[in-house]
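Appendix C: a fully annotated inverse folding record. The material below is reproduced so that readers can follow the format used throughout the book. The structure is listed first as tokens, followed by the designed sequence.
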């Protein structure tokens, strides 16, 4: 959520900043609501002051033995008027809040301009795509021979699901365990197990609600729950309504969890294989930091995700997302894209974002600044470290042999009982 004070003091400036995203802020509606809010607030304050003065006059009249009937009647009338005005104010504030919750984050000045992914800027590459002496198969053709079953998943759950078995299921588990161990032992994260069901308030705090409800899976009941679209949601909510002492920062959490997404806006995209599914696993990284440290933390977090791909020996590139392609809550994002031989292109495997204070304001996540002695908003960051299913896809395709077998990357062998080949 954007700072309400900024919206009140520089609405035109906010509109210009959001226009970089291609987002059109209805300045007239906001301005009219704010003027109405101020007028009703002034009236509420006037009535409250008049009611308090009247109450004092009642007390004085009674202490002198005077008839306070007229004053009591006036006080009752003032109370009714105030109640009505407060209801108006509450309704206007609800409208303002609803509009504010629909506003995306303001972008960092270093975010490149552009309307779509074509304008994303490549920052660096690592590794050289392998030159095959045969025509490489895609992960579906490879996987179906060694334990990847889309037909069975379809009978159970429908499209965009998969069943993995045997060595392939073990490889999937090995990838997640390797990532967790790497991030905990080498990068200093605290491993965390989180709920997979959350209340709407948790999703409101991280920015998935109310704007992206169609992308979520809601669970019926009272109270209602949602399946998490990413472990970012419960991890970031760990600091909800907290005032953290400065010595606790930075906080770095890592969690392995399933993720559930309806893919409502992805009709017809990546319908073959495991690239885009309703259920997938991810190892998620979350940082909670002092504001002045957040952009150094973004570089660090991105480097941690890169370390996974480097250890697996997978070619990849890093992109700075442009203004029109960046996520709702992010002020700046780097995407990591891994090379897929079957597609002869790089595909996203991780997004690493600095949300600055956008999520923290919704969550009321703060720290006590030792300089001022006052609570101030923290900055939150998140990134995939990395998506397990897409890592599996990349390993299968990049390590395939002509006979359809797949070499196990050396760093995963200890997690595979020493196995070096999947047949």
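Designed amino acids, in order:
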């Amino acid at each position: 959520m954007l700072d309400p004070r900024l919206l009140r003091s520089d609405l035109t400036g906010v509109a210009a900043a959001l226009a970089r995203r291609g987002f059109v802020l209805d300045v007239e509606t906001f301005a009219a609501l704010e003027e109405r809010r101020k007028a009703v607030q002034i009236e509420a304050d006037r009535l409250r002051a008049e009611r308090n003065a009247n109450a004092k006059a009642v007390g004085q009249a009674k202490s002198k033995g005077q008839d306070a009937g007229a004053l009591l009647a006036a006080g009752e009338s003032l109370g009714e008027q105030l109640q009505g005005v407060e209801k108006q104010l509450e309704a206007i504030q609800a409208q303002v809040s609803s509009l504010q919750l629909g506003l995306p984050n303001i972008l960092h000045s270093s975010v490149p301009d552009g309307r779509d992914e074509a304008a994303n800027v490549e920052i660096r590459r690592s590794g050289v795509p392998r030159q095959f002496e045969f025509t490489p198969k895609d992960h579906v053709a490879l996987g179906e021979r060694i334990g990847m079953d889309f037909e069975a998943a379809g009978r159970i759950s429908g499209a965009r699901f998969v069943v993995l078995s045997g060595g392939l299921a073990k490889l999937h588990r090995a990838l997640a365990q390797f990532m967790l161990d790497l991030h905990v032992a080498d990068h200093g994260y605290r491993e965390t197990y989180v709920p997979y069901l959350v209340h709407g308030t948790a999703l409101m705090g991280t920015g998935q609600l109310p704007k992206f409800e169609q992308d979520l899976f809601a669970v019926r009941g009272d109270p209602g729950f949602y399946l998490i679209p990413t472990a970012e949601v419960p991890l970031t909510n760990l600091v909800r309504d907290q005032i953290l002492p400065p010595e606790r920062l930075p906080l770095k959490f890592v969690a392995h969890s399933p993720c559930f997404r309806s893919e409502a806006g992805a009709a017809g995209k990546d319908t073959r294989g495991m690239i885009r599914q309703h259920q997938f696993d991810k190892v998620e990284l979350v940082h909670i930091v002092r504001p002045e440290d957040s952009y150094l933390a973004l570089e660090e977090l991105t480097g941690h995700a890169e370390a996974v791909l480097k250890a697996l020996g997978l070619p990849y590139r890093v992109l700075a997302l442009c203004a029109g392609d960046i996520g709702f809550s992010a002020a700046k994002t780097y995407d990591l894209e891994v090379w897929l031989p079957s597609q002869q292109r790089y595909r996203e495997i991780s997004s690493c974002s600095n949300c600055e204070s956008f999520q923290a304001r919704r969550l009321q996540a703060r720290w006590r600044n030792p300089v001022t002695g006052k609570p101030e908003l923290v900055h939150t960051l998140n990134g995939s470290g990395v998506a397990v299913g897409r890592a599996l896809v990349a390993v299968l395709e990049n390590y395939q042999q002509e006979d359809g077998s797949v070499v196990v990357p050396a760093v995963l062998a200890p997690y595979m009982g020493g196995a070096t080949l999947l047949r």
